[in-house]
Specification:
Helix content is about 40%, strand content about 15%. It is built from 14 helices and nine strands. It has helices at about 60-70, 70-75, 115-120, 120-130, 140-150, 170-185, 190-205, 205-210, 210-220, 225-240, 275-285, 300-305, 305-320, 330-340, and strands spanning about 5-10, 25-30, 35-40, 50-55, 80-85, 135-140, 155-165, 265-270, 290-295. The chain has a nine-stranded mixed beta sheet with strand order 1-9-8-7-6-4-5-3-2, sandwiched between helices. It is globular. The protein starts with a strand and ends with a helix.
């Protein structure tokens, strides 16, 4: 059976985006055997859990706050509780990692968790908040980490909504660029080279050319990232292993191979630098449980560039699993129209 491929044609949306620091919800540090995990919680904890995980160079605020604050998301979020997980040391205001592990003169002694260990750290977060199952929303590196968790704990994951995921190990080009970034970051320096690489990783060339305001906002945000901690996170990500997915066409043998056993939506923009990675991952997953979506007129950050269309896709994805059945497209269109006329 052919894969489900969806290509949405959109009009470009101009951006006056700012990264608002007045966030909603509560924040907690969860202690694990591998270190503290900073989690921001939005919503009623008695409701179904959505768990998010951010990309490199981002955190729960810069990666997800704008999208989850979008008007169309409000009606959806009334039915869920969102747990925004930050990789160790990536939250706003984080102190440099590793200095406390020694006398401070040998920070390289500190061992940052591998991507598999970062995935393992999700389990104590679930236990802390008494989460039995969750819907995972991941971007880039976060998508890879959530996928690893789902492979090891399939009963704990209801479904995955992944933006720009990869199931491959790092290629030589990525490895070379990122090793140079890591070298300077771990010395405490955020260079122009690193900022430009991150902007390309997040958006791709076309968005950087067409949307200078959005690029400027995120470039300024990069200046506020703790460079040492980011260096550790990037180094962990480029050392990732291939996920080893196997597509099995015999239904009787699907549970014998390494694959995801939940509903999965893979999302990318048509000008994203990660399109090929998402296509590759889609080709290796079960087509009966996987949907691949490419959003037109969009670069590498659909949550920022086309939030309306991603919101529609997310709502339909949830409704396909029986959630939010009362939210109809007609009501949403009417709400949008009324808000535009105010």
């Amino acid at each position: 059976m052919a894969e489900k491929l969806t290509d949405i044609e959109l009009d470009g949306i101009s951006s006056t985006r700012t990264l608002d620091r007045e966030t909603t919800g509560t924040e907690e540090n969860v202690e694990t055997s591998l270190g503290l995990v900073h989690v921001r919680v939005q919503g009623d904890r008695s409701k179904t859990a959505i768990l998010t995980y951010h990309d490199i160079g981002l955190n729960d605020i810069t990666c997800f706050h704008g999208f989850f604050s979008y008007d169309d998301m409000h009606d959806i979020l009334n039915h869920f509780c969102v747990y925004h997980v930050n990789a160790p040391g990536q939250e706003e205001g984080a102190m440099p990692l590793g200095l406390g592990a020694t006398d401070g003169s040998h920070p390289d002694v500190f061992q940052y968790p591998s991507v598999d260990q970062l995935a393992d750290m999700i389990l104590p977060v679930m236990q802390h908040f008494q989460i039995r199952r969750f819907i995972g929303v991941g971007v880039g590196a976060g998508a890879n980490i959530l996928t690893r968790f789902a492979l090891c704990h399939p009963k704990a994951v209801d479904s995955l909504f992944l933006i720009n995921p990869t199931c491959q190990k790092a290629g030589w080009t990525e490895w070379a660029y990122q090793k140079m970034n890591v070298f300077y970051l771990k010395k405490g320096t955020m260079t122009e080279f690193t900022k430009n690489y991150l902007l390309w990783h997040w958006f791709g060339d076309k968005t950087l050319e067409d949307n200078h305001d959005l690029a400027h906002v995120f470039k300024e945000a990069a200046n506020k990232v703790n460079p040492v901690n980011l260096g550790y996170f990037i180094e962990s990500f480029i050392r990732r292993s291939d996920l080893g997915f196997v597509r099995e066409h015999d239904p009787a043998k699907k549970h014998e191979v390494r694959t995801l056993h939940c509903n999965v939506m893979l999302v990318t923009g048509d000008n994203s630098p990660h399109v090929d990675s998402t296509v590759d991952m889609n080709s290796k997953l079960d087509p009966m449980e996987t949907t691949w979506m490419k959003i037109a007129d969009c670069g590498g950050m659909p949550l920022e560039e086309q939030p309306e269309k991603v919101c529609d896709a997310f709502r339909l994805f949830l409704q396909g699993m029986g959630y939010v059945p009362s939210l109809s497209q007609c009501k949403i269109v009417e709400k949008r129209a009324s808000s535009h006329h105010r």
